[in-house]
Amino acid sequence: TFQVVGPAAPVVVSPGEDAVLPCYLSPRENAEDLQIRWFRDDYAAPVCLYQNRRYIFEDQIPSYRGRVELFPGKLFKGNVSLRLRDVRRSDHGLYNCLVRFPRYYEVAVIDLGVRALGSQPSVSLHSPGGDQAQLLCRSEGWFPQPAVIWTDRDGNEVTSQPPTVDTDSQGLLSVSSSLSKHTGVRTGSVVCAVNTQEVFQETISLLPLAGW
User: Fold this and answer.
1) What is the rounded distance in angstroms from the CA atom of residue 18 to the CA atom of residue 83?
2) Quick one: pLDDT band at residue 49, thresholds 50, 70, 90?
3) 119-208 matches 3-114 in CATH topology
4) Superfamily for 119-208?
5) C-alpha angle 49/54/59, rounded to 5°?
């Protein structure tokens, strides 16, 4: 019997890039005459379906049309990997690579991580009036949603307002966080750090006593 094998780690790309989701037969065997079905949650709605040496488009998910293909010149080596062009935020998630043999089938699951590194955070002083001075930290173009953390000059975390999150036309996220003068920070500097598990961005804002 054969196994279908995918990578142990997620495939990570940025929006707009092309991704290759690796998938192979083990041991290596000619896959040209086998059914190769890539799908997500719904078996009946394939991302890509190859059967009888040709692609079947009838039930393909519309958002993948024209963006996916196998590697025809490598099928005889057991390489059933999928190329996904112009990756979108909505492509993020799990993919099933199913190969059907005459009497059984095997499946491998591949994790595609779409990661967008946002802009360098910008910090500005906002004074709506009275005793309401705030520092505003903003960063744009992230996916998935990052955390925003304020710390003082000694590295101690400072309590801030929960961040607000906006989504742009491409599905990327902008985050904004405000720090009130009532947090107790008076002099020196604070750090606004915006990060996810994969990436880390930070900016340092010096706070003169007269401005805060």
Assistant:
1) 7
2) very high
3) yes
4) Immunoglobulins (2.60.40.10)
5) 35
Top-level class of domain 3-114: mainly beta
Threshold 0.90, pTM exceeds: no
Q: pLDDT digit string (tens) for 191-205?
A: 888 888 766 665 555
Between CA 143 and CA 94 the distance in angstroms is 16
- The domain limits of the chain are 3-114, 119-208
d(CA 116, CA 123) in angstroms, rounded, equals 21
Q: How many other CB atoms sit within 10 Å of the CB of residue 16?
A: 12
Residue-wise pLDDT for 74-115, tens only, equals: 999 999 999 999 999 899 999 999 999 989 999 999 999 998
Q: Does residue 153 sit in helix, strand or coil?
A: coil
Burial class (CB in 10 A: 0-12, 13-18, 19+), 79: middle
